[in-house]
Amino acid sequence: MSWIKDIVDPKSRKWEEFYRNRNQCDKVVRSTHGVNCTGGCSWNVHVKDGIVGWELQATDYPPLEEGLPPYEPRGCQRGISFSWYLYSPLRVKYPYLRGVLTDLWRAAKARHNDPVAAWAAIVEDEASRKSYQRARGKGGFRRSSWEEVEEIIAASTVYTIKKYGADRLVGFSPIPAMSMLSFAGGSRFMQLLGGANLSFYDWYCDLPNASPEIWGEQTDVAESADWYNSKYIAVMGSNVNVTRTPDAHFLAEARHNGAKVTVLSPDFSVTSKHADWWIPAHAGQDGAFWMAVNHVILSEFHHGAKTPYFMDYLKRYSDTPFLIQLEQRDGAYTPGRLAQAGSLERYAGEDNADFKYLVFDAPSGQPRMPLGTLGFRWQKKKGEWNLQMQDGQDGSPIDPALSLLESHDEVLQVAFDDFADGKTVRRGVPVRYLETAQGRVPVATVFDLLMAQFGVGRGLQGDYPKSYDAETSAYTPAWQEKYTGIDRANVVQFAREWAATAEKTQGKCSIIIGAGINHWYHANLTYRAGIVSLMLCGCVGKNGGGLNHYVGQEKLAPVAPWATIMGAMDWVKPPRFQNAPSYHYVHSDQWRYERTADEVKINPAARRSPITEGHTIDHQIRAVRNGWLPFYPQFDRSPSEAVKQAVAAGAKDNQAIVDWTVKQLAEKKMKFAVEDPDAPENWPRMWIIWRGNALMSSAKGHEYFLKHYLGTHTNTIAPETAADSVKDVVWRDQGPEGKLDLVVDINFRMDTSALYSDIVLPTATWYEKDDLNSTDMHSFIHPLQAAVPPCWEARSDWDIFKGLAKKVSELAETHLPEPVRDIVAVPLAHDTPAEMAQPTIKDWSKGECEPIPGKTMPNFVVVERDYKNLYNRFISFGPAARQNGIGAHGLSWSIEDFYDELLQTRPTVQWGGQEYPALSEAKDAANVILHLAPETNGEAAYRAYQAEEVKVGLPLADLAEKSRNVRTRFSDLDRQPRRLLNSPCWSGLTENGRAYSAYCLNVERLVPWRTLTGRQHFYLDHESYIAFGEHLPTYKPKPDPSVLQDFVATREQGKSIMLNYLTPHGKWSIHSTYGDNHRMLTLSRGCHPFWLNDRDAAEIGVADNDWVEVYNDHGVVVTRAIVSSRLPRGIAFLYHSPERTVGVPKSPLRGNRRGGGHNSLNRIRLKPNLMVGGYGQFTYGWNYWGPTGANRDTFILVRRLDGEPQW
Amino acid sequence: MNIRAQIATVFHLDKCIGCHTCSIACKNLWTDRKGAEYMWWNNVETKPGTGYPTRWEDQEQYRGGWERVGSQLRLKMGGRGGTLGKIFHNPSLPTMDDYYEPFTFKYDDLTNAPAGDDQPTARPVSMVSGKPMKIEAGPNWDDDLSGSTVYAANDPGVVQLSEEEQQQLFAIEKMVFFHLPRICNHCLNAGCVAACPSGAIYKRGEDGIVLVDQDKCRGWRMCVSGCPYKKTYYGWSTGKSEKCILCYPRQEAGEAPACFHSCVGRIRYLGVLLYDADRIEATAMQEDGELAAAQREMILDPFDPQVQREAARCGIAEEVLAAAQASPVYKFVKQWGIALPLHPEFRTLPMLFYVPPLLPVLSVESQGTQKLADDFFTTLERARLPIRYLAGLFAGGNEEEVKAVYRRLIAVRIQRRQQGVGDQSEAEAARAREIAGLSAEQVEAIYRMTALTSIKERIVIPPMLRDRAVEAGTDPEAYRQEMGFGRRQAPKRRW
Questions:
Q1: Is the Cβ pair A256, B451 closer than 8 Å?
Q2: What positions does the domain 4Fe-4S ferredoxin-type occupy (chain B) (predicted)?
């Protein structure tokens, strides 16, 4: 064969330079992508001729311990296509202002010198206000200048503060971990103003409520390298290979290392191909599978074999030995509240005795009060909040009885709810009696209640199943078949393999779980069902074990100093942090579209009571009144106006102002805004959106946003149905449209939110600014860096907000020259003594108790705003940080010396006769954070552990001893990714290259979980949970489509089929980012297609790539179909999250208007029992607790679009 | 012996997640230009599926690769005489429809649309004509069983299965797919080189990389036809053909090719193989089912002193020999025998080898309930994909070749399970090794290479000896002094 060319003939091979030249570049800059993907990958951006050419992954992660695969390369198809955006025609290059508003503004400015007066002239004229609102989203942008748009925004800000109150300003930016400083710039600006920042983790339905329920923790998970330590991996609701692309290799590699991989997924997902067992359980029914698995594990491993490892683990680390009081109701006993130590004579005098709980000590046969429970956390004497099994009174050792089966006083018949069949069963449970101040009370261990709940008979009387084959008895392997479609034999085998692996490996079984589960209405129950199997088998707090929930890039590693800067708490606190699900449910008026009767069917309760009854909006109002959830605006008037009124009424000091406020509320002379959200004075007025797509990809009920927030065209046809169901809320017959005066979007690409905003500000891309990025998928911290300066007129987010702050300060010279006092309402907060505020639910507004701020109602704090110095404060790290220290999760420590070091070694600013560490540039702020965070400063870690030692009373500081001299600067992160240090702000341990796994700190160092018992909770002791029947792990069926109100007004048009509408995360975008990118569109189908099963498609005459209309009451989507046997019948996918802006035709069904996006077909629906607060782990934290934006229980109709699509 | 060094590659399909990061790494660097938009030197396909260009495997349609005619090997498209005859009309050439019409969107309409009474949208337009179009094809159109009844069902490999097997493949009990990334195979017996009427295509002597000389190419497109993998592409704007260059500029700088570097599934391995070029033709003449083994056979042992002596005689540098000894590809293909060539029956002797994927056990459906096979791990007997299908892809239909690989992959998992958990007995692990024909040490080595290796161990680039290469034509010092001066000039275009 003659084609081999040996001779290096300089002439014939010279052309090879052609490709060499392309490859040569001038510099390589490390950056990453600030997108909510959890990747947090280190990238090298290649710059040639001053232009970003392409990117490739960095491969220089420091290795972890021997025997773990390395983290390289990390970075996916989406990330590698980012460079396309920089110079694309989608780029926002200049500030844009809608033409209608431009004309109005320039005309008003011609009449009014003062910008605030000009703005007032526009928005106070109803016709002019409507004219630009109706133009939203309909083209007509004009190029503006920074000066002009900054002036409008500042004028609107000042106008709103003066006219309605600062809490009518709202900011939304999601997922700070993806670019911490860019987030912090906006939130700092907003909090210095007194505006509200909206949460995102719960709104995105990323928050797994089961995590705070069980662990008192927002979320903590293993880094992906730890999957490799696992020996049995169950993947469910998570398409790891698609959505965790950079880390998927650990799953494949774990398999070659001897792990068994099982994947529960209704469709053959890309991850299913890595399964030994692909378990095609029906969509949303994973909970039934796990409940049956738990039935088998409890039967065979806990009752049968009494597996020592499992039993020992449960005693030490879970609430299973704790005693629950049984209450008699309707002739049967039901599980009630945790037995309180204070009810026993022996312990009645203890500090916080009602928040210390009891177990039975097996050797003595006596109830005992172990350390580590809630009361120990908040008592005066420190150092007893730990998991040593010792009596809190005398330190004597306790050997708790898991079960009272061998030592009971009696077996009582206890009622258990079976929501699947809508019935109650009675089962024998062994009890002991406690002699309490209230009399003789029967108590059972959580363990025995679990056995009964799961139907493990143990020879006891009652309605227990006889065998695994009992089909009508809840939670047997046979029972689950009708929900999951999976054979009982597989469930039994799975359970045995799972538990046997855990026993042999001491807990190396793990669940990887994601949005595919978490977006269901009853996701908290499904999660719990899985977590139960982990806890039963001793898998939590173990390398290779535990629940790995990857939904959203929630882990912001250097959280303590960052939070201080982000919330402007170095100047003023508390901040106004609002949970977005409640905010949008109320303000975008989605509550107006649901009926109580339907909601009751969606969330069946064990019993009807004042706790469970009523319309969700009324639950929401109660949650605000009781201080369970925040709500902004707070009152029916400006909060600074309220202060003025208090002062006018004679209030001399801040306490008097608070007292006056409480009195006004109690006498109903002042109302919470949430009680009358449609009154014009209670509307949000100005919204700034940055780093997110708030009007499309995260706008659940998008069409309602368009209608009620924006006042522009909408494709919803849903009728309002709430009028007859609501009680506490003021019902206004006319739902307001166009609540917002001004919508500002900060963006680098013209996405749907930008398109629908009044003002679009051009921002720097992730290759044009400095910032920080961290994720839970790995244990490193990365920089974003400017490979090139911001292109065209773009500015970094930090600089944009700095500029706005300056403009506001300028206008404040005239309009708000003096400091302004503002009263801030804040909810009862997790990780504070408010966890003991409301052990029972009482409503002061109904006279059931006194209104006491911070106890029975929200707390109120009077603060002072300095608008004239807003800019100065923005760029200065304020003195309150030095004075108060920093912290997280109820832990805080002093930073005085570090603060002073910053003054000595870093840039400073001076004003008003004082000098402060500078936050002028994002990089300055990054260095302040890195210098103060325990995760990047070893001395700070050491100090934080010392503070934790005081609380816990056990040695911990040794965990930071070896890294005390580590100091990390921004420039170090440029050199090489740096691994995070051990820190008490997090529960995993990383020393010596150990893979991070959640709760290892708790298991190995006996630091309590932040829950009622300090242990992991199987049993959720809360009045509301008991009332809703979710106190024990349970199964609630998927809501029936007939109650979802998706088709009240919609009639089937043409040949249509109804399908359950799912929006999983897909392959060609990260949320909406990249989905409009030419690379991704080319490699997919040039659109965001609608996936359905081939036989379902055949029924309605749809062939692959046909145009279809997908519709229900909420709106309509027009796109092309993918017909695939990969999907089972009955479900449809529209991968999260399309833009309406790219290739979307018009919809004949809805008046030939432009089709919508995936959120055009849904509406937010809140689960009321997730609104509770003020007790144990059920207390509010921003992005930590509260109802989530569940959206998966939605149905649609789909039909073929006839003829050619119209554009 | 005529010993040659070839940079060869392995794709571990069990690890592939089908993410296409590789494709974009390549696109960004090499084919993001007018006329090259539709080219994907690296693409990833879903199997079963028809791929890109559609049904490329069907040589009855495309006439790529070689066939045996008596005792001769002949290009399937015809000998040199035949190709010249087709210069102006080549019916087996893929058309734009077989690839796809590249498209984009009128993105700037979003910013520039005048005020109206509805929302603007960016319409799809052709990158060829600039006109609005309906998008009906793409380079990854059948991704993850998209349009399974149209595409997966018409996979040439599926079509060869029995009617029953075909039906079952799309029922939940056997439903399955996997991904097949493809680049140029840099074949030993390359069809494209043989087909080029201009002599513009050559195989580099030092590393076996196959290149289209952009000065010499006259755009006859015979290479497009001659390559059975359809991995050369005609640039419709430049009038030249182009193909994967295995990122020789990156390799010359000691860097992995972009698609290898960016492979986030860590599936890609690269290293030197030594082979005897005198045996190319004899090897390519073997029976279909023997080709995979024959190809393995012609790879030489770099640890064999005789091979080393011969290699030195043939001008293989010591450093290259050392790289061949460290080559992961040698281990996968030759020592462990777990990587197989793609469609060896095309007889081009491709130098890209694939480790086939492990897939979930099958299930049985009964009245709406699925019962999975009760095997602990994936098994050979109850795997979801018919072995026949895989044998058609990787072994010229020889099922034994494929089974042998699976037995080895399964033995690795059993041994590691035995060591890491202990619920499989040592006797079971020993039995699995015996069936697989592997030692415990080999199993350990396979495991380490599969799971633990860093990029420098996965991708072992031989020193490209640029100093010596440059010296053949220019004094390297002068080269250094002058390099980069002058204006970049693209090769002359034909039109």
A1: yes
A2: 7-36, 174-206, 208-237
